[in-house]
TrEMBL record, chain A:
Keyword hit for Manganese: no
tRNA processing listed as a keyword: yes
Family of this protein: Belongs to the tRNA-intron endonuclease family.
Highest taxon in the source lineage: Eukaryota
Subunit-level organization: Heterotetramer composed of SEN2, SEN15, SEN34 and SEN54. Interacts directly with SEN54.
InterPro entries reported for this sequence: tRNA_endonuc-like_dom_sf, tRNA_intron_Endo_cat-like_sf, tRNA_intron_Endonuc_cat-like, tRNA_splic, tRNA_splic_SEN2
UniProt-recorded name of the protein: tRNA-splicing endonuclease subunit Sen2
Active site feature: 257, 265, 297
Major enzyme class: lyase
NCBIfam families in UniProt: endA
Species assigned in the record: Yarrowia lipolytica (strain CLIB 122 / E 150)
GO molecular function, one term: tRNA-intron lyase activity
The protein's role, per its UniProt record: Constitutes one of the two catalytic subunit of the tRNA-splicing endonuclease complex, a complex responsible for identification and cleavage of the splice sites in pre-tRNA. It cleaves pre-tRNA at the 5'- and 3'-splice sites to release the intron. The products are an intron and two tRNA half-molecules bearing 2',3'-cyclic phosphate and 5'-OH termini. There are no conserved sequences at the splice sites, but the intron is invariably located at the same site in the gene, placing the splice sites an invariant distance from the constant structural features of the tRNA body.
Automatic annotation (TrEMBL), chain B:
GO biological process, one term: tRNA-type intron splice site recognition and cleavage
Source species: Yarrowia lipolytica
Residues in coiled coil: none
UniProtKB keywords: Endonuclease, Hydrolase, Nuclease, tRNA processing
GO molecular function per UniProt: nucleic acid binding; tRNA-intron lyase activity
Pfam families named among the record's database cross-references: Sen15 (PF09631)
Sequence ranges assigned to domain tRNA-splicing endonuclease subunit Sen15 in this UniProt record: 4-107
Name of the protein in its database record: tRNA-splicing endonuclease subunit Sen15
Lineage of origin: Eukaryota, Fungi, Dikarya, Ascomycota, Saccharomycotina
One term under GO cellular component: tRNA-intron endonuclease complex
UniProt family annotation: Belongs to the SEN15 family.
Keyword Nuclease: yes
Length: 342, 107
């Protein structure tokens, strides 16, 4: 399979489209062209909407695909990140899937299987090589030319592999998602974290039902009294250009990606430490860092000075409040004397 | 929250016979996974799950009560449960919680 050009696939780091005007050179036509483009430049940035149902923010309509592709916001409720439940389920139930389209979860599953197979082959080859050398030493065999029979990564047929891994009986539960015509009903939606919803509303005009800043801050703070502290941290990293996603898989608060999950793995795990709350003890920190170290990421303790917030936090006040937060980072790294000598 | 966990188990992780039991302490979810969950399991076993949020504080006493509630519904001994922790981005992480000490697995 050919490698996709990720930069072409995801050209926009935020749900905002920058209209590039043509250059002006010493030519009256270029000036005219520039003026036309400048005057008639419309706002081509998408206007996305979301709704707030059962205490969670769901992207509506185009926003499901758009908010993922432009900045990697949200998560498909039945997928690892990007909504891909429909592809997986169609393949599993034997419904039509476009050729060459695979869910990221399927690609991972496929790669793991391939690697496992490769490792087994390599172990077998190494054992044979050992036996051959022992035979030579004992004079049972002659050393012959060095053959190029290193194990190679096997080429698998993806479709055959996935068909086999999905081999399970259709469950009665599957009837819930197939309509009377035999088509799949897509029950998945893109869920936004509360911090993402407020950020997208403030920065890019995302409509979340009919909620304004005040309504969001009130509601999100009711659910989590430390909402504003987490929002300040989220806003801090997002405005510095990081792609910020939930870190619960590794026991942290946020994960920082340089560009987004399709490009690279997350490099940093953020643990938010509000300054006025008691510090967790060393054993707790050590446990967290061993988990994060195990997935080759760096632990960042993010100490936050939380201002006293009084009265209503509306559109204008939120900016003032955010300015009073102070965020400082401390990186924790486990030091192993025998491995850190150079 | 229990309903969210049920949807996740049934449609993402392909569990069967997932039922929500309301007890006076908390909702409990019961269901059967498509394959064994732990390498030491001899066969597929049905599991009990306790819904939780990522910012909850849990005590040993509460766990003791959860086990007792599950045993009340099951009518038999329950030696392990799964803690299903729901995050604000819809991620659900599952952790085993055992009743008492369990011998660690050989590497």
């Amino acid at each position: 399979m050919k490698k996709q050009n990720l930069n072409a696939l995801y050209p926009h780091p935020y749900p905002y489209v920058v209209d590039v005007v043509p250059p002006v050179i010493h030519n009256p036509i270029s000036v005219l062209y520039f003026l036309c483009r400048w005057i008639f430049a419309g706002n081509t940035s998408p206007e996305y909407t979301a709704e707030y149902v059962d205490g969670v923010v769901r992207a509506v309509g185009d926003a499901r695909e758009g908010l993922w592709k432009m900045g990697f916001f949200g998560k498909g409720i039945l997928s690892r990140s990007e909504p891909s439940w429909d592809i997986r389920t169609k393949r599993r139930l034997g419904l039509h899937v476009e050729e060459g389209v695979y869910a990221p979860e399927e690609v991972t599953q496929f790669r793991r299987e391939q690697r496992q197979h490769f490792k087994a082959e390599r172990a077998k080859a190494e054992e044979e090589e050992l036996k051959r050398r022992q035979d030579i030493d004992r004079g049972l065999a002659v050393a012959d030319k060095n053959e190029d029979d290193k194990p190679v990564r096997p080429e698998f047929d993806r479709d055959a592999f996935l068909a086999k891994s999905y081999e399970m009986e259709k469950r009665t539960e599957d009837d819930e998602v197939v309509d009377s015509l035999g088509n799949l009903v897509d029950i998945e939606f893109l869920q936004l974290m509360d911090v993402e919803a407020l950020f997208l509303h403030m920065a890019f005009g995302l409509k979340v039902g009919d909620m304004d800043v005040k309504a969001m801050v009130d509601e999100f703070t009711r659910k989590d009294p430390r909402f504003l502290t987490y929002y300040a941290v989220y806003h801090h990293y997002r405005s510095l250009g990081w792609c910020v996603r939930s870190g619960i898989k590794f026991g942290a608060d946020f994960l920082l990606y340089k560009k987004g999950p399709p490009f690279t793995h997350a490099e940093f795990c953020i643990k938010v430490m509000p300054k006025d709350e008691p510090m967790p003890d060393f054993w707790w920190q050590s446990n967290l860092c061993r988990v994060i170290g195990g997935v080759k990421k760096t632990t960042v303790f993010c100490f936050v000075d939380v201002p006293k917030v009084e009265g209503v936090v509306d559109d204008a006040k939120l900016v003032e409040v955010l300015k009073q937060f102070k965020v400082r980072e401390v990186v924790y790294r486990r030091w192993i004397p025998s491995r850190n000598r150079d | 929250m229990a309903e969210q966990i049920r949807t996740n188990l049934v449609h993402q992780h392909l569990w069967s016979d997932v039922v929500i039991h309301q007890t006076k302490l908390t909702d409990l979810v019961h269901g059967t996974p498509p394959r064994t969950l732990h390498p030491d399991d001899a066969e597929i076993r049905s599991e009990w799950l306790v819904p939780a949020r990522s910012n909850d504080d849990w005590t040993i006493k509460q766990w003791d009560e959860c086990f007792r509630e599950a045993e009340g519904v099951a009518g038999k001994d329950v030696d392990r449960m799964l803690m299903a922790i729901v995050d604000n981005d819809s991620t659900i992480v599952y952790y085993f919680v055992y009743k008492g000490l369990v011998k660690p697995r050989k590497n």
